Structure formats: C-alpha cells, structure tokens
Amino acid sequence: MTAKRTALLLAVVFVVYAVLLGWRGVLLIGTGDPVAVVLGIAVLVIPLLGAVLVWRELRFGRQTETLARELEATGGLPIDDLPRRPSGRIDRAAADEAFLKYKAEAEAAPDDWRVWFRLSTAYDAAGDRKRARATMRTAISHHARPL
Fold it and tell me: Distance between CA atoms of 48 and 137, rounded to whole angstroms?
C-alpha cells in the first residue's frame, strides 16, 4: 500500500472516529446535566484538535511531495546510493558522511529550498526524523518565497 493511500485511509478512519465521538459529545450536552455538558464540550474539542493535526500532516505531506516532484524534474533529487545493512537500514557512517556534504550545501546557500530539501533527506537517512521534518518545513517555507 502506498503512503498516499495509507494517509487517505487513516484520514477516513479519523473522520469516522471524529463523527462518532462528536455525536457522543452532543448527546452529553443534550442531557442538561452541568457535569455532562462540560464533559460533552471536552469531548467535542478532541475531534476538532485531531482534525487540525490531521490537516497539518496531510498538508505537510502534500507540500513535501510537490517539492520532491519539482526537484526530480530538474534532476536535483539526491541519489539513494548509500550502503545498507542486511536489515535494509542505511549504514550510519555513510549517512553521517553524506549529511556533512548536504549540511555544507545548506550553509553555503541558506535561502535555497533545494539544499534544505536535500539536507532533510540526509537527516532522515541518519535516522533523525525530528530534524528531518523541521528541515523539510524550512525547505517548504523557502519554496513559498522564491529566491
């Protein structure tokens, strides 16, 4: 199953969950009991917060995919030629070496979204998902305001 289909499936499951949970919140509010009303309002907040988070993640994925397609069209995507361990994971030393190259590129051209995109893939290859996502957000923001 592709990542796009998985994301869509999870979004649909979340919508069903949010509707069912929201309905329970409405039923609690409808009782008129002060404690149930407060609980019902709290129950309604959960799906709303979840919807915002799901929307943010789907938008992030869409924006990342747009950047990847644009970079691929110009031949700027990094080549996935790092050696792998028998488990399929990228060799950490090789990932760290590639990371230094992409980090130097980003330092040399800090306003170019392309170098931030490549640095994000290097963070990901090195196993640092948190920094990979933060760096991809930087690439997205630089793409939104062209050089």
Answer: 23
Read off the tokens for 91. 């060799």
| CA diameter of the chain | 64
Closest C-alpha to 25, from 16, 37, 34, 33: 37
Residues 6+ apart with CB under 8 A from 65: none
Residues 85 and 114: their CA atoms lie apart, in Å, by 28
pLDDT tens digits, one per residue of 48-59: 898 899 899 889
Other CB atoms within 10 A of residue 47 CB: 21
Identify whether the C-beta of residue 10 lies closer than 8 Å to the C-beta of residue 18: no
Per-residue CA distances from 13 to 54, 60, 89, 116 (Å): 11, 19, 30, 33
Q: In whole angstroms, how far apart are CA 146 and each of 17, 81, 109? A: 40, 30, 13
Q: What is the pTM of this model?
A: 0.75
Question: Is residue 36 within 8 Å of residue 45, measured between CB atoms?
Answer: no
